[in-house]
Amino acid sequence: MYGNGVLTNWFTGFDAEFAQIYCSPGEPVNSICNRYFQITDGQMGKSLLGGKKAGGSIKKKTDVEQIHYLKQNAQRKGIYGFMKKVSIFFHTLVMILRDFIWCTGRYNKEDLNTFVKDFNPDVVFCPRYITPKLMRLEKLVSEMTNAPFVAFTADDEASLNGISYSPLYWMRKSFVHCLFKKHVSIYSHYLMFSSDQAEEYKNEYGIETETLYKCWIFKDSFSPKKVGKPIRMVYAGRLYCNRWKSLAEIGKALKEINKNEIRIVLDVYTTELLTKEQKKALSEDCFIYVRGKVTPAELIEIYHKADIALHVESMDKKNRLLTRVSFSTKIIDLMASSCAILAICWEKHTGYQYLKEKDAAFCLSSYNEILPLLNEICETPSLIQKYAEKAYTCGKIYHNRGVIQGQLKRVFEEIITR
Length: 418
Description:
Elements: H1 6-11, E1 19-22, E2 35-38, H2 41-48, E3 56-59, H3 64-72, H4 78-87, H5 91-104, H6 109-119, E4 124-127, H7 132-142, E5 149-153, H8 167-183, E6 187-192, H9 195-205, E7 209-211, E8 231-236, H10 243-257, E9 264-269, H11 276-281, E10 288-290, H12 296-305, E11 308-312, H13 317-322, H14 330-335, E12 340-344, H15 350-358, E13 362-364, H16 370-379, H17 382-398, H18 401-416
Parallel strand pairs: 1-2, 4-5, 5-6, 6-7, 8-9, 8-11, 9-10, 11-12, 12-13
Antiparallel strand pairs: 2-3
Helix pairs in contact: 2-5, 10-16
C-alpha cells in the first residue's frame, strides 16, 4: 500500500480495473479496488518459524457496519506496530532484521501466482519506497507475468546521500544501492516527485523517467476571501525531521511582530505528543497555539477560515539530505485550500523549487527571511489574496485530476504498446 491516500487520489474515476498486492496489516477500505493479496511482517516471520507460507487473497468488506469498524480501527498493530515503535530507538537494526525476514521468509508462491495469472495485468504499477523486501516481491511477480512494470517513488530511496556515524547504516545503505542497480532494469518507466531525481535516474540507470504529482478537483474559478484580523496562519502535519524547529523560528518572529498588538498568529494541528523543549518553543507566549488532531473534513473548514497555510521542512544538514527529493502531497491540498502558501525549506528541496518556479507561494530558504516577510504581509495584507490566487491557479493548471490521470493513461498506454 502507499501512504497519504495517493493511490485513491490518482485512480478515483480512472478507467481501469485494479488488483493490489500489499505488505501491511489491516484491511482495505476504498471504492476503487476489489481484489487484494496481502503479505505481512507477521506472516513472513511465522513462515521462518515453521508456520505456513506467507500471503493470501483477502476479500474486501462490503457491509456498512464492517466498513465503519475498519475506518475506526485503522491502526498498525501486532508485529508491525511493535517494530515501528522499536525502530525509533534502533532504526537500522530493525531494518536489517526486517530485510532478513523478508529476504529469507517463505512466500506462498502458488497462491500468489494464481492471483497474478487470474487477474492477468496489462501493467504492474509499483508505488513504494524501495527496500530489499519489495525488490524480492517485484522480482517474484515479474516471473509470473509479462506485463511491463512502472515504478513510483517519493523519496531518495537508493542513493548514497545522507549523514550517519553508524557503520550499520552505511552497510545497509550500500547493500540497498547495489541491489537496486541490478533491479532497476525490471522497470519500463519510473515516476517520481523530483525533477532532479528524475534526471539522476535517467543518467545513472538509463531508464525513462518523469515527474508525477497528486491531483485535486479544482473549482472553475478562484473565490477570494477577506483577510482576517489578526492574520491566521495554519500548520497541519507531523513535527518530525525537526520541522518543529522551523515553526519555532516563526514563533520568534511573531513575538517581535506582536509586541504592541496581535497582528498575526499560528495554529498548529498535529497528532504528535510534544516534548518539553517543543512545548516551550511552540507556546502561546510565541503566539503559537497547538490544537491537536482534527479530521480531514474539519481541516478543510479550518483552512477556509485561515489566511496562510504553511509548508515547512527542517534546515539542518542531515534532514535536508533526508527530505531533499520529497514533495509533500499536502502541497496540492494547500493549493485548493483557499489560503496563500508559505513555504520554508532548503532551497534545493523539491517542494521549494517547484513552488518557487511556479511562483505559487511565499518561498523562504533562510530563517533570517521570516521576520521581514511577515512584517511585509502585515503591512500589505492584499499580498495574501494575491498569493492565494497564485496557488489556486497553479493547482488548477498543473494538478487538475484530468491532467494527472491523462498523464498516467499516456504512460501506461505507451509501455503496453511497445
